[in-house]
Specification:
Length: about 80
């Protein structure tokens, strides 16, 4: 895991076999979910449910969004 902090901003990236497995930022403008919620593509409660699933099952967020039927793989930007 790579963690970068500056003032109150904190960013963390988890790698698995050299590829990004999970990325997190406490800067709201940098979060993928915030932009999807702001644009109305998904609801906050649906996003929160998918985030919990991703953490619980240790799977990428796009997989959790598809599993929870919040978004399809193509609508999440993953192919």
């Amino acid at each position: 895991m790579l963690t970068v902090t500056h003032d109150s901003a904190k960013r963390a990236i988890t790698f698995q076999q050299g590829m990004v497995r999970f990325a997190q930022s406490n800067v709201r403008a940098e979060t993928w979910g915030a932009s999807q919620i702001a644009s109305g593509l998904i609801k906050q409660t649906s996003f929160d449910r998918a985030m919990a699933l991703a953490k619980q099952q240790n799977i990428p967020l796009h997989e959790a969004l598809a599993t929870a039927r919040v978004m399809t793989p193509s609508s999440s930007g993953r192919r």
